[in-house]
Specification:
Layout lengths: L10 H25 L2 H19 L1 H13 L1 H26 L8 H6 L4 H24 L8 H20 L4 H25 L3 H18 L1
Helix pairs in contact: 1-2, 1-6, 2-6, 3-4, 4-8, 4-9, 6-7, 6-9, 7-8, 8-9
């Protein structure tokens, strides 16, 4: 059953949260000047920003966790639906679209096997938390009452563009497929949020699908 979700985060919270999201690449690039390895640099940046966002947006995160806990049947149902949709879309992207995805380099993981849990946690569930909170902040002030389809599509088009401009290299051959990939991915996450009234199913679905994808290439 579709649930109408309507909330208002403060503009300050939205601004600071999106600044943290935008800071992921900046911190990774700065770290890479010293570390000389983008996988390690992004692992540091994602972990740092992810935990900063959870702490700063704890009230938001706790609200969505409690919604998931209050209605676990719908929560797990839409987690499974999300895993199927995201897995199919990732398959399309990897085999046909080739949009940019933030994945670790297997060579780096093999070189530092003791750090495997840190690598995997960063690129899967923590990255999913960052994406979920950021897209929620981006679209929070959209009026979604009785306009569920519009907000789901708008979330994808708007946040997909932000993600693409921040993380993909600025060439047409990369920007276009990345924008299409990220837009549909966010549409799926927005659909899961709209249907379950919680960000948690999307986080679990995205994190789990990404984890499986990474393990398959190691």
């Amino acid at each position: 059953m579709t649930q109408k979700v309507y909330s208002r985060l403060s503009y300050k919270r939205i601004f600071l949260s999106l600044c943290m999201f935008a800071g992921v690449r900046g911190i990774a690039e700065a770290s890479n000047l010293i570390l000389k390895d983008y996988t390690i640099s992004y692992t540091f940046a994602i972990n740092f920003i992810g935990w900063m966002m959870v702490i700063y947006d704890w009230n938001l995160f706790a609200i969505h966790y409690n919604r998931f806990k209050k209605n676990p049947r719908d929560g797990f149902l839409f987690t499974i639906i999300g895993m199927v949709l995201l897995a199919l879309w990732n398959y399309v992207n990897q085999n046909f679209l080739h949009g940019f995805t933030l994945f670790p380099d297997p060579a780096t993981i093999h070189a530092y096997p003791f750090a495997l849990p840190v690598f995997l946690l960063a690129y899967t569930y923590i990255w999913a938390v960052i994406i979920a909170i950021s897209f929620k902040c981006t679209t929070d002030h959209f009026d979604i009452r009785d306009k569920e389809l519009l907000i789901i599509l708008s979330s994808g088009f708007v946040f997909g563009l932000i993600y693409t401009l921040l993380f993909a290299s600025w060439t047409v051959t990369v920007l276009v497929p990345t924008y299409l990939y990220s837009t549909v991915q966010i549409i799926i996450l927005s659909y899961l949020y709209n249907q379950s009234s919680s960000l948690i199913p999307g986080i679990l679905a995205m994190g789990t699908v990404t984890l499986i994808s990474i393990l398959m290439i190691l």
